Amino acid sequence: MSKIKKTPELLARAKQLIDQGWTQAEIADEIGVGRPTIGAWLETPEQAARREATAKQYREANREAQKEYDRKYYAANREARLESSRKWHAALAG
């Protein structure tokens, strides 16, 4: 697809087509842009805020899950790491 800039005319056309019941994919084909571009053009401020809030929740949940995994992994492998460190220091001491 070629680089097509969002203009007031194209946005008005997209809104007109969505009001006529066209799908975003059909509008994208008609205008010559990708379907995600049409979705972004037609997104309301409320939808954008909801999307960002959902993304933030996922990021926070992923961060917490990663912390929990790290805590369990390091706790489970603590003895092995200590033993490895002891062997390394013993080898250095000769």
Treating each run of at least 4 consecutive H or I residues as one helix, how many helices? 5
Q: What are the segments in which pLDDT stays under 50 over at least 5 consecutive residues?
A: none
CA-based gyration radius: 27 Å
Query: By helix and strand content, what is the structural category?
Result: mainly alpha
Helix content: over 70%
How many domains make up the coordinates?
Answer: 2
Distance between the termini: 67 Å
Please render the helix and strand layout as text:
Blueprint: H1 8-19, H2 24-31, H3 35-42, H4 45-76, H5 78-93
Helix pairs in contact: 1-2, 2-3
Write up what this structure looks like:
The chain is mostly helical and about 90 residues long. The protein has two domains: about 1-40, no CATH class; about 45-94. It is about 80% helix and about 0% strand. It contains five helices and no strands. α2 crosses α3 (about 35-40). The radius of gyration is 27 Å and the shape is rod-shaped. The model has no long low-confidence stretch (mean pLDDT about 90).
Highlighted features:
single chain; mainly alpha; 0% strand; rod-shaped
Please outline what is shown here.
The chain is mainly alpha-helical. The chain contains five helices and no strands.
